[in-house]
Structures are given as C-alpha cells and as structure tokens.
Amino acid sequence: MELIAKDLTKEFIRESKGTNRFVAVDKAELTLTGGETAVLFGRSGSGKTTLLNMLAGLLTPTSGSVTLDGQDIYSLSDRELSRLRNQSIGVIPQGQTAIHSLTVLENVLLPFTLYNDLTDDACAYAAELLERLDIAHLAAAKPSELSGGELKRMAIARAAVRRPQLLLADEPTGDLDDENTREVLTFLKELAASGSAVFIVTHENDAADYADRALRMNKGVLTEAEKQ
Amino acid sequence: MFKGLAVKNLKGRPVRTAVLVILTVLLSVTVFAGTVIVQSLRSGLDSLGSRLGADIMVVPREATSKKSFENMILQGSTGYFYMNSSVAEKVERTEGIGDLSEQFFLASTSASCCSVSVQIIGFDPETDFAVTPWIKKSFGRELEKFEVVVGNDLNAFVGDELSFYGTKVTVAAKLERTGTSYDTAVFANEETIKELIRSSIDRGMNDFTDVDPDRAVSCILINTAEGYTPEEVANDINIHNTKVRAVRTQELISGVSDSLGGVSKIVGILIAAVWVLGAVILLLTFTMSSHERRKEFAVLRVVGASRGKLAGIVFREALITCLLGGVVGIAVGLLLLLPFSGLIEQLLSLPYLMPGAGRIVLCALAAVAATAAAGAIAAAISAHRITGQDTGAILRGDN
Ligand SMILES: Nc1ncnc2c1ncn2[C@@H]1O[C@H](COP(=O)(O)OP(=O)(O)OP(=O)(O)O)[C@@H](O)[C@H]1O
Ligand SMILES: [Mg+2]
Questions:
Q1: Which of these three, B248, B267, B292, is where a domain ends?
Q2: Fewer CB under 10 Å: which end of chain B, C or N?
Q3: Interface of A with B in 56-115 (CB under 8 A)
C-alpha cells in the first residue's frame, strides 16, 4: 500500500478576514507506506484536519493530487471513491461522530452494514476490537450513554473494523486519559505492524514514541520533523 | 441493517417522526376525503338526473316562484301544491308531447317512521314512466291500494304499517339509496295518495282547503315526442298557460351542476393548498435538519456511504413516514366520511351519493400517491442539499 500526496493545496474563501483567499494547506508532499506509523503535530488552525480530510477523499483539494496505489482518488466517481473509502481507508474524525439511533456495536459494524456485507468473521473481529479498546460492556448501549473517551474509542473501533490499508486518525487521543492514550497508541502501532499505514494527527508529544515518522504542520506548510 | 437505519432514525427521533406522520396524515385525509366528497357529489348528480326521468316537469306557477318545487327536488324539503285538472288537461294538449304522466304530492306532518315530515309522491300506474321502472328494481309487482314504497333513508321496513293523517298504509318495498331527495320520500299510486289527500283535508290539515282531491294534479311529467326539443315544448307550455310553469329537468340539474362545480373547485383548491403546504413543511423538516443530523450524514460519508446511499436513507425515511401517514389518513378519512355522510349531505345541501368501494379504493390510492409524492419531492430536495455539502466542512462543525 502506498499513499502519495503531491502538491496538495487547499484554499478557503474567507470574507471576514482581510484577504479573501486563505491557504489552509500549502503544496503538501507526503508519502505513506503500509506498515508505517506517522504522527502529525501542529498548532491549532495550522491545517492538520484539512490535510487529513483531503487524504481521506472527504475534501476536494484546490490543486494537487492524492493517489492510492497509483489511483488518483479524486478522479474516481463519488460511488467509487465512497466504496474505496469504505474498504480501504479507515477515518477517525476529530470530535464526536456517533450515529445516535444505533447502538455502540451497530455503530462499529456500520462500514459493513452500509454495504450489506456483514459476515460472522466481521462480527467476531468487531467484538475483539471492543474488547481490546475496553468498551465491550457497552456494546448494546446507545451513544448518548457513553462518555467522550468511550465514544472516541468506539470511533476508533469503527475505523479499524474493516482492517483498512490506510488509517487516518484525527486526534484519536483527544478525550482520553493517559492510560487510555497509551492503550490506543499501542493499538494503532499494532495495526501498522499488521501492514496498514497509520497517520495520526495529535497534540500528544509522547505519540512520537509510537511512530516511525513525525511530521509538522506550520501555517499550512508540511515538513518532516526530527524525531526526539 | 442498512435498510434498518431509516427506521432506526425515525424511532430515534420520536418527536420529529410524530410531527412528520401527523402532517402526512393531514395531507392524506384532505386528499382522500376531498376526492371522495367530490365523487359523491358527482354520483349524486348522476343519480338525480336518472331519477327525475323526464324532460319537462310542469307545476303550478306559485310552486316555482316560492321555490318550493326546486327545494323539494334538490334539497329534500317537503312541499305540495296543486293545479286543477282542467288546467292540466290544457297543458296536456300541447303539441310535441311524447310520454306524459301526472303526479300528486302530499307532505305528512309526522308519521310513526319519521321524526320529520315526509314527502309523499303519488303516480299514475297507467302512464307513469319515471318512478315505476325504478321501483321495479326493488319490488316485483304493482302497488296495491294502501301500499307504499319508502325511500332508503326512512326508518320503515317492508311489512310495517304507517299512518298518514289517520289512514293506514303498509310498506311494500324499500328503495335502494339514490343520494337524492327521493331517499326520504314515500311513493304511492294515484288511488292511495288521493285517499291520503282526502284524509288530510278532512282533518283540516291540508294548506289547500278548497282542493278537490279527484281534480287535483301536482306535477305533469313530460317526455317530448320525436322531432321536438324539450326547450320548444317547455316554451310553448309557458307561453300558453299562465297558471303553470314548465321546467326543463336539464335546467334544474344544471343549477346543481353549477354549485357542484363550485364545490369541486373549492375542494380542489383546498387539496392543492394543503398539498403544497404539506410538501413545503415536509421539505423544511427534512432539510433544516439539526446540526446533529447533518453531522450523522457526514459520519456516514466518512465510513463510505455514497451520495446515492445517503439519498436512499432520506428517501426511505420519507417513504415510511408518508406510507404510514397516508394509510392512517385514509382510516381517519373513512371514519369521518362513513358515519357523517348524512351531515355532509345536509351541509352541502346537494345530492350526495357515496361512490362504490372500487371508487373509494381509487381515491385512497390517489391519496397515498399524493402524500408519497409530496414526501418524495421533499426527500429529493433535501437529499440533494445534504449530499451536496462538503463532508469535511460538516465534520468541522462543532470543534
Ligand atoms: N470550510 C472552511 N472554510 C473556511 N476556512 C476553513 C474551513 N476549514 C478550515 N478552515 C480554516 O483552515 C485552517 C485550518 O483548519 P484545520 O481544521 O485544518 O486546523 P487544525 O490544524 O485541524 O486545527 P485543530 O488542531 O484546532 O483541529 C483554520 O484556520 C480554519 O479556520
Ligand atoms: Mg483539526
């Protein structure tokens, strides 16, 4: 698996601030390969989420390209791109992202049920993930009954349930305590060990310890950082 | 379970769902009840046309000036009036008459069968062409003296004995429903009604004290002969006979037709207005969905739902709501229409005959279709709006 971002740029139109055009991500170059964990640091508003969304196929870049195993994902039709994301790209979005009418387990299985291809194997793996992330006892609960950290772990299980080749995590440890943070980072590292490429946006300095590479975003400019 | 998501979304937001269903019930009731009422008025009019059964009706002039004749035919109010048979004979000599038959009217003050006064219509079995063919449908033989046939709405049954002005008559048959004033009338042959008229005069209970029952005629029914139009014959009668008025039944019916057109138009406008209003409210509820809902749609995109799949969920939600609301609406409509059809008839004071089950089913299908169409349009627009947004932008929303 190889993800290549070339010359990736996103401009937003902002009428409130002086200049109309605002460059959130400026000509980012990035290559991620299977088995590798990369962390992205950067100040709030530096463009991390914008970059991650573009890598996920969720935000059309102003210019530049994202290719997954040689396939330019933004040249795909909406159906094809959606299916690709469903099968190959796991996304843990920033913030809370539960479907409130579904239980925790149903939320986690959503990537399968959405395409009607739920298997026993998938159910078993989902149960394993819930166990691993310490929310198995909440499987039948509704999201409204969960804490922020529990919801976050539910979103992680949902992103991982299809064993995606690429896992994009936007502040996956944002709502977690230290112990859970370590647990989640270890879990993501294991995913990488099993062959996936893992990309983690975080403010957690310790996260670098779990990663092969560290990246830094500064006012939309992406650079490779020294690993301390 | 993907299919279940729409259902779960609806269950997960009971208030929103209840509002949507109530709205669609309202929509469906309006379309269903509206079309059934219009249909009922149409069949009432058709029924009236075929019941009148003559081209021209000739009545004493004062009966038309006081509107008592028109009210009797169209609204089922009771009335009676007489012309002398010499006047009738002169009318009957008019050129261009094909069939001709005399009728005799009387109104009872009260009778055991009925809380209100009843219209009694007498016909001459020798010449009658308007009432007999229709009575024959419910009754095989000819009416004997002191036998009557009753309209469908009267609370009297075959074999019952009724008393009009102290004279007893037996019910020989009950007619099928027509939706016209005939449903509350009693029919008798000439011999019988003349006895009844005599009784009413003897008891001093007839407004026409000096009338001789043997020489009294209330109405002459005329079918024109070939080569003559009803208009010509009616005009001819009206010019040469000052004491009577010849009314073309077509004229009578077209009066009803006009008011029917009016009522249909009002009902049509009402249906259209409620439909548009309903569609707009549905659209708003589907589109101005909460931030939470928009975010949930974004999450579905994140886990790989295409625009088509999202639209499918919105459509399914709309369809379920509309079908549920549509069916409940029809049930409510039936509950309103069936027991209260008498009241509706009174309110409209027009001939009103509920159409058969087949027609009602058609109206029901139309109502469900109209409701579903409103839902589908609302769903299409809101699906377009929801899926048109940038998922990344929606996700940012609240952090
Ligand atoms: N849809 C948008 N319209 C206008 N400006 C936007 C939009 N999305 C992002 N931005 C701007 O782009 C910049 C980068 O946003 P982004 O969400 O990528 O930041 P971030 O690095 O993820 O920040 P944080 O750490 O707080 O999540 C911000 O200044 C933001 O205001
Ligand atoms: Mg961010």
A1: B248
A2: C
A3: 56, 58-60, 78-79, 82-87, 91, 93-95, 97-102, 106, 109-111, 113-115
